[in-house]
Amino acid sequence: MKFERLRLTGFKSFCDSADFKIEPGLTGVVGPNGCGKSNLVEALRWVMGETSFKNMRGSGMEDVIFGGSGRRPSRNNAEVVLLLDNSDRRAPAPFNDAETIEVARRIEREEGSTYRVNGREVRARDVQLLFADASTGARSPSLVRQGQIGEIISAKPQARRLILEEAAGISGLHSRRHEAELRLKGAEDNLLRVDDVLKQLDVQIDSLKRQARQSSRYRNLAADIRRHEALDHLVAWREHEASFAEARRRLDADLIEVAERTRAQGEAARLQA
Ligand code: ATP
Fold this sequence. Notes:
By secondary structure, the protein is an alpha+beta fold. It has five helices and six strands, in the order E-E-H-E-E-E-E-H-H-H-H. The mean pLDDT is about 90.
């Protein structure tokens, strides 16, 4: 991975925009104590996705923003842009279509960091992977800070293993394994939740089946009741029809008798007269 240029704006002691060219071969930065040499290396680490403010020698990540000096007020944001040469097209697929890759990290007070690669917003994880795949990164032993050589010599085997793994170019794989394990864990959690939901649904299915049985019994009974009620009405109607016919017959007989009596009464009246 070839670094071409580092641009700092508002980062630590770099209040104004500063362009730091990294030419082929050896590039040296010379200056008196406290002039900001280590800040440059920290800017490199930071843009690569450093998450620990302690590694930035601060008490919070916002300490990387220019905090003001005797003559200049403080700023509210800081940005570091790192330009990578990608002419041999060895970047990961999503970023591999450009000649130069521009990785930018920006921090705003109280809003946290955002990352962009070639102008497109990406996750911190994507930037970390981009560098891990090229065997470098914010925590990479290829970035050696003051006093670190001594630490490596006296380091435990486990810590030395990290250096060897990075030299073998497999740190990207480790990062990916970690991400894959997290996703796997997420998928397992989801499966457990699905199991819970399935159990709940089983309970609901049992209760719904019971309700469905009750409802079908209710429908059969209701149909029986309706049929019997209809039969009752039919029987009652027939009974009423019979008694109506009987009443009509009696009415006809009574009418005949009334006519007979009227005629007899007429006859009697005539005889009396
Ligand atoms: P040395 O040679 O002693 O290691 P150096 O050249 O590496 O020093 P740095 O440690 O990079 O210097 O820079 C320290 C300087 O950066 C200090 O002067 C400090 O005041 C300044 N500085 C650090 N953080 C900020 C900030 N947030 N805002 C303004 N200035 C800052």
